[in-house]
Amino acid sequence: MLTQTQDPEAKLTAILERCHATVLDASIPDAASLPEGFTGTIGNFPVYFPDEIAHAAGLLPVNILGGGNKLEMKHADARMGSFICSICRSTTELGLNGTLDGMTGFVTSPICDAAKHLAGIWSRNLPDQMSEILYLPQNPNTQGATRYLAAEFQRLRAELAHRVGHPISDEAIRSSIGLYNKKRRLMRDLYQIRCDEPWRLSCSESYMLVRAGTRISCEQHIELLEEALDAIRQRHVVAQDKPRVIFVGGFCEQPPLEMIEAMDDNCFIVDDDLLIGQRWVKEDVPEDAGDPVWALAESYIERSNASPVQHDRRKPKEVYMMDMMRAAKADAAILAAAKFCEPGLDDQLFWSKDLDEAGIQYLVLEFEEKMTSFEQMSMQLETFAESLLFALA
Ligand code: SF4
């Protein structure tokens, strides 16, 4: 039991405070403070990482999501150009300033040039840590995509087994898949509540509940989500009059929490792509598959969400954002992109063209994780919400 209080509001507040503390602490747990059953940590860069394989190896998967807007940059600027997005720079800073000391390794994938080159920077500057690029297929439509990805996951499995000094059994991976299926089901429940009764759970609250899971064990996250969902369902809340809006652009670098709160102040954010890698697989991964690694690869290819860093013709960029809007019964969209994020800016063009053609209102925002001033953005959001309410009246 995480919290003792019976009052649902107080219980949820206590859980959210715990999530905040977890998220603010970017350091890597030492051997004594690792959750039971883990012998090390594996850092992974967004968007997607097969947590189940690390979990089965006894390595705590930690999603490295940059340094937020409190980190002082001292070392990273000397190692990368000024046109690189903030999450790459601050992740490098965390590595160089010692915050990520003790990690067994760091895995990135070629979602863009900046992310791909992080592995090289890592191996030169932090030679004691394993540094790997996991080559996720950018084009999942070729016949051999699942076979290729399964081989890539097996390569990762072998590398992690080498690091921990013992093989990773199929049975251990199946057991991890079962746990992660449960965690994803609970996250889907959170998003369903936001769609059905958005006054019951804000975007920033749901974000903190999901984000805490990027740093704690799957077992701890399941316990936290179950308790939070119980409190959310019992919460006494009054429905408010706000426009229903989706937010896209938070798939990799994360907007500051203050920006998400400013959106909450003005709109119901009924769906989003924040931390989409945590929710990448949309349905349960088969738990009884003969080859659990194949099951993970097949789920990645066949039953996954869309994002700007993947090019799947079954999820065309012209369609997936509009599908999101329809499913969430949204009135409008907030199209955001992290500064210097090429994949995000590319998709923004497709999204805005579609919305223009459909005559749907949208607001374009640019953000950086290191932003500290939100007054102007708050005013933009207020004006946007007012114009929506006026149009919808
Ligand atoms: S924020 Fe965009 S540019 Fe930066 S690492 Fe992520 S996908 Fe690449």
Low-pLDDT sequence parts? none
Report the strand count. 8
Shape: globular
Proportion of β residues?
A: 5-15%
Distance between the termini: 46 Å
Bound molecule types: iron/sulfur cluster
**Spatial order of strands in the largest sheet:** 2-1-3-4
Provide the gyration radius in Å.
20 Å
- Tell me roughly what share of residues is in helical segments: 40-55%
Mean pLDDT: 94
| Number of contiguous helices | 13
Structural class: alpha/beta
The largest sheet, given as strand count, sense and whether it forms a barrel, is: 4 strands, parallel
Order of helices and strands: HEHEHEHEHHHHEHEHHEHEH
Topology, element by element:
Layout: H1 8-24, E1 40-44, H2 51-57, E2 59-63, H3 86-96, E3 105-108, H4 113-125, E4 130-133, H5 145-164, H6 170-196, H7 203-212, H8 218-234, E5 244-248, H9 257-266, E6 268-272, H10 292-302, H11 317-327, E7 332-338, H12 342-358, E8 362-367, H13 375-392
Parallel strand pairs: 1-2, 1-3, 3-4, 5-6, 5-7, 7-8
Helix pairs in contact: 1-7, 1-8, 2-6, 3-4, 5-10, 6-8, 9-13, 11-12
Describe the structure.
The protein is α/β, with parallel strands linked by helices and 393 residues long. The protein is built from 13 helices and 8 strands. It has helices spanning 8-24, 51-57, 86-96, 113-125, 145-164, 170-196, 203-212, 218-234, 257-266, 292-302, 317-327, 342-358, 375-392, and strands spanning 40-44, 59-63, 105-108, 130-133, 244-248, 268-272, 332-338, 362-367. The protein has a 4-stranded parallel beta sheet with strand order 2-1-3-4, with helices on both faces. Strands 6-5-7-8 form a 4-stranded parallel beta sheet, with helices on both faces. Helix 9 runs parallel beside helix 13. The longest helix has 27 residues, at 170-196. The radius of gyration is 20 Å and the shape is globular. The structure holds iron/sulfur cluster. Iron/sulfur cluster binds next to helix 3, helix 4 and helix 12.
